[in-house]
Specification:
13 strands; about 425 residues; 3 domains; Arc Repressor Mutant, subunit A; alpha/beta
């Protein structure tokens, strides 16, 4: 056996390290020792080696990643989620967490792999019905609740009735609540032959009534993580933040990185530890504004390493989220621009400063998107690319943005489409 020595900073040997290579005699000893230990045991002791669990790794490759809404390409790239993983969504009261989950659930149901299971711990099923219909049709919930006839609401809900179920969670201990969810996941998997999406809105409600809520939430999230892995389902866990952290998540306090944003969530560490991905929502609210700018901070991305910010916009009519191709100006940045304009002798209202900043950033993003698409078409050569292939190009944006860019390139004679394949014109 060859031995190599690792040296510390002073040149002295720190510890020996042998060249790796399986010793079959030692492997056999492990097998014999475990068999002896399990004789007479009620619960067998399992100590698999990394090679023993390789089939599970390969099996996971055959399972589809969670379908994100097509209008959120950057978030989907950063949060490529596989069965057995939790996506944590952290935000303050009224930040649009539930509507984000509704829109994600719609995309999941439309993909046709499995169904949506919603644990309504905060809002009741009738309230969630209004949110689903509003998101489907882009109208305010008040109009649906007060004006829509029952037949019209029923027609809208009928589009998801085969792939959406509410899970009645009992007012009981956490173990019983999770056992109810696990039973529902098992039923859904049996019916569809594919793992469902489980949405929990919101996780702090799991530990309602506990004296030490932080410790109880830690235990609940660990139990939820184990259940998600055991059942092989997709889980989205919504988490509430405290009002004390509102300035940071409203853009009035600067956040230097998306991983720092996770610390703005009350009890977010418990959710972060159990999640494969963590999205912290910073929403820039304004009185009576029909639309709100926001930044989705991906502070944890276990498999993709895609930590970072994603620009977004929330439309109150319908509670619809749209991914932007740029990061919108925060209130802190708007205030700085207003002061700069005032010093320069051209005063501007905050609304004007916000629009100017966002237009400038959108224009810069459009230029980058154009360069990304031209580069991809140039690399493809005469074979060209179809729209589906272009969607995999990093920086190409959403399908709608790609169509805008391709139409622009076609108008100026830089690209053309032949039988659905786009090629670059020299």
């Amino acid at each position: 056996m060859t031995v190599a020595y690792i040296h510390d900073d002073w040149g002295a040997p720190a510890f020996p390290e042998r060249e790796l290579g399986a010793d079959e005699r030692v492997v056999a000893r492990w097998t014999s020792a475990i068999e002896r230990a399990n004789k007479g045991r009620g619960l067998p002791l399992a100590m698999p080696s990394p090679l023993d669990v390789l089939p599970e790794t390969m099996k996971a490759r055959t399972l589809p990643p969670m379908p994100w809404p097509a209008a959120w390409p950057d978030l989907a790239r950063r949060c490529r989620t596989y069965p057995g993983a939790i996506v944590g969504i952290v935000g303050g009261t009224g930040s649009g967490k539930t509507q984000m989950a509704v829109q994600l659930a719609r995309a999941f149901a439309a993909a046709g792999h499995g169904c949506v299971l919603w644990a309504p711990l905060e809002l009741s099923p009738p309230e969630l019905n209004l949110r689903i219909v509003a998101n489907l049709h882009g109208v305010h919930m008040a109009a649906i609740r007060d004006e829509w006839p029952e037949r019209r609401i029923a027609d809208a809900l009928a589009t998801v009735v085969d792939r959406w179920r509410y899970v009645p969670v009992p007012r009981a201990a956490v173990d019983l609540k999770l056992a109810t969810m696990e039973e529902a996941v098992g039923i859904a998997t049996q019916i569809y032959g594919a793992p469902p999406l489980l949405v929990i809105d919101y996780v702090q409600k799991l530990t309602a009534g506990s004296q030490d809520k932080r410790a109880a939430l830690t235990d609940a999230m660990e139990a939820l993580r184990e259940m998600t892995e055991r059942c092989g389902c997709y889980t989205v866990a919504l988490s509430q933040t405290s009002r004390g952290n509102a300035p940071m998540l409203s853009g009035r306090v600067e956040i230097s990185s998306s991983t720092d944003a996770a610390g703005a969530g009350a009890e977010s560490s418990e959710v972060e530890n159990a999640s494969s991905y963590l999205i912290t929502m910073a929403v820039f609210k304004a009185n009576d504004a029909p639309e709100l700018d926001a930044i989705w901070h991906v502070g944890k991305a276990r498999w993709t390493g895609g930590e970072g910010p994603v620009g977004a916009r929330y439309t109150k009519a319908g509670g619809v989220w749209t991914e932007l191709d740029h990061l919108p100006a925060t209130p802190l940045e708007v205030d700085a621009e207003v002061k700069r304009a005032k010093r320069g002798g051209t005063p501007a209202a905050p609304s004007e400063a916000r629009v100017a900043l966002n237009v400038s950033r959108s224009t810069a993003s459009a230029d980058k998107r154009r360069e990304a698409i031209i580069g991809a078409l140039r690399a493809a050569g005469a074979a060209g690319l179809v729209a589906r292939e272009l969607r995999r190009v990093r920086g190409a944006g959403s399908a709608a943005r790609q169509r805008e860019t391709l139409d622009e390139l076609a108008k100026i004679g830089r690209a053309r489409s032949t039988s659905g394949r786009w090629t670059l014109i020299a």
